[in-house]
Target: Alpha-1,2-mannosyltransferase
Amino acid sequence: MTAAQAQRKAPEGPSRQPRETASAPASPAVPAVPAWRRPLDVPLRALREAPRRPLAVATGVALFSLLVYAVVRHLVHTSMVDMVVYRAEGAAVAGGHDLYALRVTEWKLPATYPPFAAMLFVPTTWVGVGFLRVAVTAGNVALLGLLAHFSFRLTGWPRRELRPVGVVLVAGLGVWLEPVFTTLRYGQVNLALACLVLWDLTRPDGRRSKGVAIGIAAGLKLTPGLFAVYLLITGRVRAAFVAGFTFLATFAIGALVLPDATWGFWTKYLYDSSRVGRTEVVDNQSVRGAFARLLHTPDPGTLATLAAGLVAVAGLATAAWAYRSARWLPRAEAWGVCTAAVTAVLISPISWTHHWVWCVPMLVLLAAEAAHERSRPEAVRRRRWRFVFGATLVAFLSFMMWMVPRKGQLVLHLPALHQLPASIYPVVGICFLLVSALRVRARRRAAGAPLVRVPRQRVPAGADAVPDEAVPAPAR
Model:
């Protein structure tokens, strides 16, 4: 029987109803998510996928922690002085007053940020100080959770369904980290800047707008500009230039709207360190501040400058080395970003304790390494990363720089035993840079890879080419 005859003899039945199937009504299409809901769709879906019991326990712990924090905050009479300064800057811009002549609060604090930042503070003048205190505090707690989310995305840890649990825990318990506690106490913008930078760095390198958020952060506060250098030395040239041009755009906006203030800031006030604060106080947790206390002088001079320069070169080189070791190093981008962040805070002439909110991604990275270490078989399991994570966590929870004698000129006469607690963050930062370098070196050695990239040999004209695999690795 031919195929045509078989087809003619086949009985009619449900399996042969092409016309009816074609004419059957299509299944209802899934309604598209409205544009205004798209930013909320991802976190809401993540909450739905998170395990219910751990999320409920984490929420209870976080709420209890925030309640205790609210009581402590009331007892210590939180002033939020920096928020008051920001509001005064916005009022000066709105009222057409001299931005850098203002002095507010009982400490006569001046404006220290670029004019572009002062322009963004104008909306703070639309509400009263009492409401602003609540709004800024709630906003910073939310930003702490967002910073945890970006940190988890950067490290790729924990599993996606567990990340809402981690975000809730960090938002509730992270307020006790000294840099975060001080950021909330002063009403600072550090968490917002860190979120801008991490949002940019966790986006795909192919995005044409990658670098914009870093440029905006640098326009608000100059220190994040070091991340543009990090992008450049890690080969992401376009993103680095986008960050640079965005920063120039913030300068141009400030110059157009506030030409006198822009001229004054970039030609005079930026270089007047007395407007920012004293170098030697324990609030300043930079390399320069540590040297000022160690040498018992408010001006540590060339020695501190050379030390900061050495840290800058070593830190950026280690960050680039980590990023370029992605073939052998798990979480290579996280190591590179955290190393660059620590370098930026260390080398700044003035790095207040609240500038160290980068401890959040640092601790997430170390926790990821400790979790990976714990997952290994018992026979080969070690405890080194759990020790490193624990020691770093204790340092940022300790508040120890506030326990040394620091009133008046006492800070210039600290004995040797007080130097470590007075400069605990620079010590932790230098140790982190060392750990980062050792981590990259160990992973490359374990993989049998060269410690540095071996350049391809130049081949004379007419000679046979030497294949890449024939290039020997340097002796280890």
Q: What stands out?
A: The chain is about 60% helix and 0% strand. The CA atoms of residues 255 and 262 lie 5 Å apart. The mean pLDDT is 88.
